[in-house]
Amino acid sequence: MPGDGAGTDLAERIPAALPSSVHEILRALWAAGHAAYVVGGALRDVAAGRPSGDWDLATAALPEDTAALFDPAVYENTFGTVVVRRDGRDHEITTFRTDHDYADFRRPHRVEFGTSVEADLARRDFTMNALAWGAEPAQGGSAGLIDPFGGLADINERVIRAVGEPRARFEEDALRIVRAIRFAAQLGWMIESATLEAIHATAPLVVHLSGERIAAELGRILAVDHPFMGLRLLADTGVLAAISADLAAQRGVAQRKVAGEDLWDHTVRTVDAAANRPTVRLAALVHDIGKPATAADGHFYGHEVVGAELADRLLDRLHLSASERQAVVHLVRQHMFRYAPEWGDGAVRRFLAKVGPRAIDDLFALREADNEGSGLPRDADNLDGLRARVAAELASGPILDRSALAIDGADLMADLGLTQGPELGRILGLLFERVVDDPRLNTRERLLEIARDLGRRAGPASGSDRRQ
Prior knowledge:
Blueprint: H1 7-17, H2 20-31, E1 36-39, H3 41-48, E2 56-59, H4 63-69, E3 73-74, E4 81-86, E5 89-95, E6 97-100, E7 110-113, H5 117-122, E8 132-135, E9 144-146, H6 151-157, E10 159-160, H7 166-172, H8 175-187, E11 190-191, H9 193-202, H10 211-222, H11 228-237, H12 239-243, H13 245-248, H14 263-273, H15 278-286, H16 291-294, H17 303-317, H18 322-334, H19 345-355, H20 360-373, H21 383-395, H22 409-416, H23 422-437, H24 444-458
Parallel strand pairs: 2-5, 10-11
Antiparallel strand pairs: 1-2, 1-8, 3-4, 4-5, 6-7, 8-9
Helix pairs in contact: 7-9, 8-10, 8-11, 14-15, 14-20, 15-18, 15-20, 17-18, 19-21, 22-24
């Protein structure tokens, strides 16, 4: 909840909220005669009655003067930020500055250091983040709150408002566009009307952002308890189209799911219903990304195959790690499974072998969310029955790939006289299928016996693979 009371109450609560390491850094800067303040999001969180995260500081001291006061300290950038490690955490201390010439819609091309905390706050993104608490020793005053843009009032009203002229703020740094939506999703606050209008106008600038930056903000949106607000804002403002034209194309595509809702509505419902795990939430976002491209007469044949390809391209552009990307793409490719209680044990083992034991829980979580997003019970299509059968198979130690066979290619080459080649692979594949159907066959003697029979059936056609 927002803080009860305004500036004086907050000014009293801030010192109690500051970690001892921050107090230590402020005292050192003040003792050296430098103006120094705590700034940004941590103050916003204190004012809103939320847990505080990173504590950033700003000072009139030049970077080299700040670094000289602390050991260890690291200063390796052009933006005036010194990193000081205290109590096991890094604290960023940045010299007051003004930024100029944002030609790439992301980073200032020129930075000027200054002495005014008010000028420093003027370059920040939103009024809720343009607060400072600290002191200027040269003026002899005690520590107090600086709030030149009405940020505290906006925090108490739960409003996200750009500092100054909104469109100028977003044209300087397009990441602020996505950050505004992320803050709305995380905090549950409203974006002020002029700021929202500027997001609509500048949304195409998001294409200039790096994949890593977009992925980081998108991940934070997906990680909130209920991401629907953030996803709706992404689509309604045009930001989604700048991130992924394929996802944006879902809007207006008819679905025979929840009455009156389109494909994008289904995706939003699915994400909101998904287990709050990064892989599952991201898979829920892209699980139907292939539907617009495969839409035909109310059907979406093969959309999971096309979707896996499109998801792979999107996640590669967002620079996700290979392991993260592969895990999500695998879920998209496999999410259209159809289970029937009539499946034999061998069918369950084949399903488990295809999905893989590491992905099975995430796939079930995705299907539960997909069911709910379709207006169905979470365990529709007897999902719980399949989950129980898979659990039983895992408990018994199933054969999931050829490496678990009691024999390998070397055994077949020695016993049947085969050489490396297609025939060897064919027989190993057939042996694996037999063992999946009946795990009792997985002994060296029985598999060699079956392999000899398979070799005899192949006859002369396989002679090119045999030793002469």
